[in-house]
Design goal:
- By secondary structure, the protein is an all-alpha fold.
């Protein structure tokens, strides 16, 4: 839903195109996004083992002295680092991918919509990276330390590298999406679906919902708690963003 139309502002005409022109533009944008990911991936390929070592460092640091990660599949020593390099390349190239999406969508937006969409797009990229950094530097350290400490006596903790990659990718994606809560909050207020006053009254339910969302996104209770608390704080940050970006809606 667009912001209220200003009667003093002349009506803006959007450029129209044929279906073929839109499809050609979509193909061009998709090719540029894919090429950005491939370019970064090829640059990381010679260092895919160091990349995996960096990604697995939080777990390796938490393992007891003398313990190590293991391989249970024949091709895993090569495929797992290569997959890690690909996903890291995807995360690095994400701003380019989102920029291409923006360039495809932008011609269909009014100027007043673009003024709000651009800061939201930039904020979403920053928040996604903050979510990944929070998971890597804080959550992993606490979570893996807890798991190692909870290992029963007589049991050696020797994680498989393929299973570890799948686990951390899920955590990265979950925290990256969880940190987009302020963007979702601003969009809800901007669209008129809910008011700031209603969101303030719903704080107890939002707090409970953060734990429910953490339960659905996180693979364990420990990371669920570490996700739910930042999600609620980011919800409060979304209310502040709404007052800054759309003060007329926030005050309504």
């Amino acid at each position: 839903m667009s912001p209220p139309y200003d009667k003093h502002e002349p009506e803006e005409q959007l450029a129209e195109g044929t279906l073929i022109s839109h499809l050609l533009e979509l193909r061009s944008r998709m090719m540029k996004a894919v090429m950005a990911v491939v370019f970064v991936f090829l640059g990381l390929t010679p260092w895919m083992n160091p990349v995996f070592e960096f990604v697995s460092k939080p777990l390796r640091d938490a393992l007891p002295e003398g313990s190590a990660m293991i391989v249970t599949e024949v091709a895993a020593p090569f495929l797992t680092p290569m997959k890690t390099a690909f996903y890291v390349a995807l995360f690095i190239a994400m701003p380019v991918v989102l920029y291409q999406v923006w360039q495809f969508v932008a011609p269909g937006l009014y100027k007043r919509e673009k003024r709000l969409a651009i800061p939201l797009l930039l904020s979403s990229i920053v928040l996604f990276y903050l979510g990944i950094a929070f998971a890597y530097f804080i959550v992993f350290k606490l979570m893996f330390g807890f798991f190692v400490g909870a290992t029963p006596s007589g049991v050696d903790m020797t994680p498989d590298i393929s299973q570890y990659l799948s686990f951390v990718l899920g955590i990265f994606l979950a925290f990256g999406l969880a940190f987009e809560v302020p963007i979702a909050t601003v969009l809800l207020i901007w669209s008129g679906l809910v008011s700031v006053k209603a969101l303030k009254k719903a704080r107890p339910y939002i707090f409970l919902g953060a734990f429910v969302a953490g339960m659905l996104l996180a693979p364990d209770v420990f990371s669920m708690t570490l996700m739910a608390i930042p999600m609620y704080l980011l919800y409060e940050g979304g209310l502040i963003m709404a007052r800054v970006l759309i003060p007329e809606k926030a005050a309504a």
